[in-house]
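Batch manifest line 451
LIGAND: (2Z)-2-iminopentanedioic acid
JOB: complex structure
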Amino acid sequence: MNSIDEKLRPILAEVHRRNAGEDEFLQAVHEVLESLGRVVAKHPHYLEKALIERICEPERQIIFRIPWVDDKGQVQINRGFRVQFNSALGPYKGGMRFHPSVNVGIIKFLGFEQTFKNALTGLPIGGGKGGSDFDPKGRSDGEIMRFCQSLMTELHRHLGEQTDVPAGDIGVSGREIGYMFGQYKRLNNRFEAGVLTGKALAFGGSRARTEATGYGNTYFVRAMLQTMGTDFDGKKVVVSGSGNVAIYTIEKVQAFGGKVIACSDSSGYVVDENGIDLDLLKEIKEVRRERIGEYVKRRGEGAHFIPTSKGEIWDVPCDVAMPSATQNELSGKGAATLIRNGVIAVGEGANMPSTPEAIKAFQEAGVKFAPGKAANAGGVATSALEMQQNASRDSWSFEQTEERLAKIMRDIHDTCATTADEYGAPGDYVLGANIAGFVRVAEAMDMQGVI
Ligand code: NDP
Ligand code: 2IT
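JOB STATUS: finished
ARTIFACT:
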């Protein structure tokens, strides 16, 4: 609590009381409130009108049963969630996560972060998040389809292109979006293209959406490096994870001349001093859906695999670290190792991958640090571009879409930097992102009355 302005402490205490045990949500709220002391000092009306309290409370939370039948004929039950966090700026927007660790606290932290992230894009999207504790690992294509259909049988009544627009996240990519879209269409008897994003190109998807989160984080980090008078060229880069965000981060870093020497999954990490072979990684992860150890078996000399029990990816010396797997994957210990090994910049591809101790360590060591709600906003921004294309029944070229993405990332970078300057903390992208995102949402809410 010490790092929180004393005027905000009662608000935080109430959030703790109301959301006891939801650790990730409390962590995310804590971080934002740490940044807001300087805002309420300048603009007391945010306090007088209880805007912070209102923003910390989701507008609506939906929790539901998902029954489905597995390949053996056994009935399975999962729990589904959709937290519609804030609609001040547009329809609720945010991904669906399928992972056994999913619970209401995780979905709420993600929805809270999403609200500010979406505001930072400057596009008309509110914040939401959803998912299930369903574990897709080892499930057949038929099981995935039946699960997605059952989920949508309940969720459809809460969605709509003007109401709530889900997309992918961990465990949810084009395949799952397709199954959910098909079921939504059957239940509503309308081809409502803009109700989900991350669709295949064949039925209203956007070019560059698959690549957008990883590319966007890479553009953001490049902008930070440029403020230091340098670039990706020749830099050693470590990217955790090997899913959608990690793969397209690696692709763009390589295009900018960086050398990605390590990536991971939950079983461990691989180091490849020759640089990750992206075609091989895509084949293993996107096509065959295998574990990361397969990379080393197929790549041969120069690459090695270290299981999770024997160390973490942050042990690998690098210039730039881009955590792109999951929340709290980079602890104070990992940060200390990276700093000792000379890291100069960190860009969060995942949502809240760095613990508060890690963020503090990076900032105290003068490492440029890009928080997820700014650095990984390229994915949802391109989702909003997909909604635009759907609304106008249009389809843009890859180049046109990527150009929009690059400009949005540059604008987010500059907004965070100038906001940090304005509030007396130059170079603090965490403060800049939290304040700029908060102010956009709070101003819109204020104009809409007591909502
Ligand atoms: P994917 O499912 O494609 O990939 C997730 C990767 O992270 C896998 O390599 C997975 O390993 C690893 N991972 C997931 N959970 C854990 C865990 N508990 N411990 C260790 N490793 C884990 O997901 P995405 O790439 O889409 O998402 C990655 C991160 O980026 C998430 O934090 C997500 O919220 C965030 N994000 C995603 C966006 C998107 O557009 N997809 C947009 C913005 C942020 P394994 O297969 O072994 O589980
Ligand atoms: O965390 C995120 O920003 C996402 N998973 C993407 C959300 C979206 O609606 O594209």
